Amino acid sequence: MSILSPLLVRTASALDRRFGWERLPRSLGILALVGIRTRLRRQNLYDTETVTSGPSANGAPPRALRARTLDGSYNDLSSPRMGSVGARFGRNIPLDRSFPEELPGLLEPNPRVVSRELLTRHEFIPATTLNLLAGAWLQFEVHDWFSHGKNAEENPWEVQLDESDPWPDRPMLIPRTRRDPTSDDDPSTPPTFVTADSHWWDGSQIYGSEQGFADALRSGKHGKLRIEGGLLPADLERHVDLKGVAGNFWLGLGILHTLFTLEHNAICDAIRADHPDWPDEELYDRARLVNAALMAKIHTVEWTPAIIAHPTTRLAMNANWWGLAGRGFAGRLARKAGSEVLGGIPGSQTSHHAAPYSLTEEFVAVYRMHPLLPDNFTFRSLEDDRVLQERTFREIGALDTRPRLEELGVATALYSFGRSHPGAIKLHNYPRFLQELRRPDGTQLDLAAIDVLRVRERGVPRYNDFRELFHRGRVSSFAELTDNAEWAEELERVYGHVDRVDLMVGLYAEPLPAGFGFSDTAFRVFVLMASRRLKSDRFFTSDYRPGVYSPAGFRWVKETTMKDVLLRHYPELEPGLRGVENAFAPWNAVT
């Protein structure tokens, strides 16, 4: 493949420019995507780190050699700090193109105007091929992947409001992202930001990144996590700061956190059956490895093919995990031969490609998919599908998740999500409650305006420049950007020139490939970063093997689906899931 890759890249680029990968026969489409990924791995990975010193691999705690650490250190034993808490976000664009705009351009057009005129949901537009678990799942995973931590308290952005705006305060104050203080040492380089979670796909949303929280989760027996009355322990609330990411908690996250806490404990039982003499810590570490890998697999081969349900991408995402040769004999031979394309990434050789591993600001930017959330939620009976409750998001938020689950039960909440649709990721479909979000600490936010400003603030280019940097042609007009004539007029009224369109707005406006729930431009970032999260992680590559995971744990990852997880812990969901191939697709109504 390395010998053929220059030809592959040229061929893929030509096919993509001439026809579009999505219009090609599936075999040629896969070839084009492999070529696109190869080019992106070479040309769209940039390191922002300057600190190379740190702990040595020779000094690694013995536990870190076989298990994930709480802060993500020692995943790469030759560079123990890589990807850990406090590491910088990387970039997918040249560093000289990642400077944020200066004022006043940074605040133009006004983020609040963009929110009100282009994003406001006038009528809920459902994504009818998905169920609401798909929307909850995305936030569940995002809370594992990236967090910029607490915002800076000083010198907030001041967004001016016109007289017609009902916002209670003038100006609207938006806290700035807290910058990495060392990035100010050299004004010739763009500002950088650091992560409050590890960059690795390690299940940190469940297991935590801070010792006190992690300890509070542990039962201290047989490696298991605490569950009380079928729910997460109520006293965990003492260990979280509702002014931070924990303030975004809601019932959708509550049911998934509960589900995969139960799954961790089931994994402990399976491993302990083979190793009854293993101590609590050993069982915990192995179960965490298995649980994190299972979530990564579900996201790769179930969630992603559900939300981008094009025949080519369904095959491509399965190939990321299993390889083009599949799960059978040919696939096993390909994996033994070390072929990532034919045998899949898990178990292949670790590689960081053109830069040390990190998640990137561009990856964060394209994962802004809040339209998936509805404003209103219907809860239905598991016995006859009748409506039990109608709730707004404010009634199932961080402070109300536990009361709602105590009333309804987790199984009923899961069934209700399976029977509901998320929103389509489009203009004019941003949840209204997020445009006037009241957080548990009493603050009020327009999250849509913040989303727009965060992308600009962190130096991610506007839509047209972004397309160009990801090797797509620029659009020359609003009519070329979107096939919706009304949207084109609205975009022109707000932006004036197509080059000023914000990235998130352009992603929501552009036409979608068949079966896609988000844009082809965003997909280019996923083509690169979705495989990178697996390929750089030794626990998915060189250490993805029975000796590390345990034989029972390794089988667990290989054989388990999201549907298996649901039915293992809530068998009463079987009528709703009967005949449903993908657990993120709409479920049956029970009668």
Q: Termini distance?
A: 53 Å
Low-confidence stretches: none
Biggest sheet strand order reads 1-2
Structural class estimated from helices and strands: mainly alpha
- From the 3D coordinates, which CATH architecture would you assign? Orthogonal Bundle
Average pLDDT rating = 94
Description:
With 591 residues, the protein is mostly helical. It has a single domain (44-229, 242-577), classed as Orthogonal Bundle (Myeloperoxidase, subunit C), CATH 1.10.640.10. It is built from 26 helices and 6 strands. The protein has helices at residues 5-18, 26-43, 62-66, 111-119, 132-145, 204-207, 211-217, 251-274, 280-307, 311-322, 329-337, 340-343, 361-366, 401-408, 410-418, 432-435, 447-457, 463-469, 478-481, 485-495, 503-509, 520-535, 546-549, 551-559, 562-569, 574-577, and strands at 157-159, 172-174, 376-380, 387-392, 437-438, 444-445. The strands form 3 sheets. The protein has a two-stranded antiparallel ribbon with strand order 1-2. Helix 2 (26-43) crosses helix 10 (311-322) and helix 5 packs across helix 8 (251-274). The radius of gyration is 23 Å and the shape is globular. The model has no long low-confidence stretch (mean pLDDT 94).
